[in-house]
Amino acid sequence: MGGLPQGDHEAEGTTMPEDTVRTRVSAYAVARAGGSLLLTRLSAASPVFEPGLWHLPGGGIDPGEQPADALARELREETGLDLLDARLLGARSYVAQRLGVSWHLVGLFYLARVAAGTPTVTEQGGSTGAARWVPLSGLSKERLSPAAADALRMPS
């Protein structure tokens, strides 16, 4: 499909039988404030991306749930912060393998304005181990998920 944005992290030349691939549609917050980006550190419970990577707040959209509602729910669970406003920036597609599962992930990226406060993980046992505002100037030193790396290249 020419002209549509492609994820930079697709495995070229890799094909997986359709019946073994799980598809997940997720909504992610790209929240910037004071020269920092709001990020979450993935825990061992992360279903798609490697634990320990810094990732965007957000996650899977439940059946029947609207993407903006999923974004607000995930943001609250992973950071304790409320979503004030969101505007769709774009979408990216990824393939990954984790814990014996092949994934096709479609990420919807939203420029998000969030309530002030210190990020605190409120969901216990989830895929988020930590949340914090990370200075943009120091992001090159951090290990980022493919989705977080793509978000840095998106115009806001």
From TrEMBL:
Cofactor: Mg(2+)
The protein's name in its UniProt record: Nudix hydrolase domain-containing protein
SUPFAM superfamilies: Nudix
CDD domains hit by this protein: NUDIX_Hydrolase
Pfam families: NUDIX
Family per record: Belongs to the Nudix hydrolase family.
Organism: Actinacidiphila reveromycinica
Stretches for region Disordered: 1-20
